[in-house]
Design brief:
Length: 433
């Protein structure tokens, strides 16, 4: 790393730390560096047995009960193979020409083959372009530099370590302590805590990164995918994860407006029983429905989210309320919470829900309500603080990230700063479909 940049980073992130905290951070890193060991204390459920293979579903999740094997449907298999070939050709065309196929959106809404998500998601997130632009500006090895900086001074390592060990432990990739995928999950989150110091680390990010690792597996690609999600023009998830979670509360406020307009009977009943969005929709918006819908349906939502952007989050919330409207208006708050907390375990008509989501999104767009309203302007006090912080940022003494220092950060395209360690990055990218 350039000495001047290193000095600036050191000045910015210089925090009083006790020897105990430094030792703890180093101990945690060394444990992940070592990986899984025969000397680890292993719980009985962590060791796969023969029955494990009968309990694993097609997505890699392990269940308590043996999953009945469906009879082989030759016609269905042949149909899936034809679909996969079409998707493969489309991706190859996309890679070769750099142009997104015209029928991509329609294909995504129809359904992306699970085997092709590892090809499609990096293209949608423009990982290659983001990585190349950052390396052009800052040299090769940005990700490794961030990992090394995290090892030296990230204040989030302890919380990341705790969350890694409770993220998708019922999935074959993350089941074993300190396994390869847990290592990758830890390293990506640790590196990003340095890359984007405005966010650092926030609970909810671990599940998103784990999902990306399931399909992309290359940890550096996942690091840049996370960058695209938080800073990319269609997603702008950054403000979902910064302290005080301002965008999450904007989602709540907008959801209340949509709920009142598009499902008035549910809204009226929810108001009567004090069922506020905070009680049921936090993970809907924070993780884009991960863990709150059956995984196969959540994947469909993520496919569409990566194509359409944040509009899908509000549209899906209204779709859920519409789909189960009859049950909601007759239930009390406890029954509603129980129902929604177990929704991911239910058998749902996914095609019908996706069709309803499409119709809902169209309605929201027609009424110009699909996007979140712009955030309120900052108060004079906040503006004064931002001005002072911006001034300090250029001297390497601020903890403000590049996104916060930029004007109009809610625009659909804006400059992406690598981190506050690298201020005034001249690189721009826009994720458009």
């Amino acid at each position: 790393m350039d000495p001047a940049l290193q000095a600036r980073a050191n000045n910015e992130l210089n925090r009083d730390e006790t020897a105990e905290k430094r030792e703890e951070r180093e101990r945690i890193f060394k444990r992940y560096d070592q990986g899984r060991s025969k000397t680890d204390d292993i719980e009985p459920w962590e060791e796969p047995t023969f029955s494990y293979y009968m309990k694993k579903d097609e997505y890699g999740f392990i269940h308590d009960k043996v999953i009945p094997m469906e009879p082989t449907d030759r016609k269905k298999m042949e149909k899936n193979q034809i679909r996969e070939k079409k998707w493969y050709k489309m991706c190859e065309y996309w890679k070769k020409t750099g142009q997104m196929p015209e029928d991509l959106k329609a294909r995504v809404w129809k359904g992306c083959p699970n085997s092709m998500r590892g090809e499609v998601w990096p293209l949608l997130l423009q990982i290659k372009a983001i990585k190349e632009e950052n390396e052009k500006a800052h040299g090769i090895g940005v990700y490794e530099k961030m990992k090394n900086m995290a090892r030296e001074r990230s204040p989030d390592i302890r919380q990341i370590d705790l969350d890694v060990h409770r993220t998708y432990r019922n999935h074959e990739m993350f089941q074993l302590k300190y396994c390869v995928m847990q290592q990758k999950l830890f390293y990506v989150l640790a590196a990003y805590s340095m890359y984007n110091t405005q966010v650092g680390y926030c609970q909810g990010m671990a599940n998103v990164v784990a999902l990306l690792l399931m399909y992309m597996q290359n940890e550096e690609d996942v690091f840049w995918a996370l960058t695209a999600l938080l800073r990319g023009g269609r997603y702008l998830m950054n403000d979902l994860y910064i302290p005080s979670l301002p965008k999450l509360f904007r989602f709540f406020d907008h959801h209340m407006v949509l709920r009142k307009k598009f499902v008035p009977s549910v809204h009226k009943h929810f108001k009567k029983i004090d069922m506020e969005p905070q009680l049921y929709a936090t993970k809907w918006f924070l993780q884009c429905y991960l863990d709150k819908l059956p995984f196969s349906l959540a994947l469909r939502v993520w496919d569409i989210f990566l194509v359409e952007g944040e509009e899908i989050e509000s549209a899906m919330a209204i779709t859920i309320l519409r789909t189960f409207k009859k049950a909601f208006v007759k239930a009390n708050d406890e029954q509603i919470n129980t129902f929604l907390s177990s929704l991911h375990e239910k058998q749902l008509d996914e095609e019908k829900i996706i069709d309803n989501l499409s119709e809902t999104l169209l309605e929201l767009r027609k009424t110009r309500m699909s996007h979140l309203p712009p955030p309120p302007p900052p108060s004079p006090t906040t503006l004064a603080k931002m001005t002072n912080n911006n001034s300090r940022n250029h001297h390497g003494n601020s903890n403000m990230s590049g996104a916060e220092s930029l004007p109009n950060i809610q625009q659909t395209a804006y400059k992406s700063s690598i981190v506050s360690q690298y201020p005034a990055l001249p690189v721009t990218y826009e994720t458009t479909v």
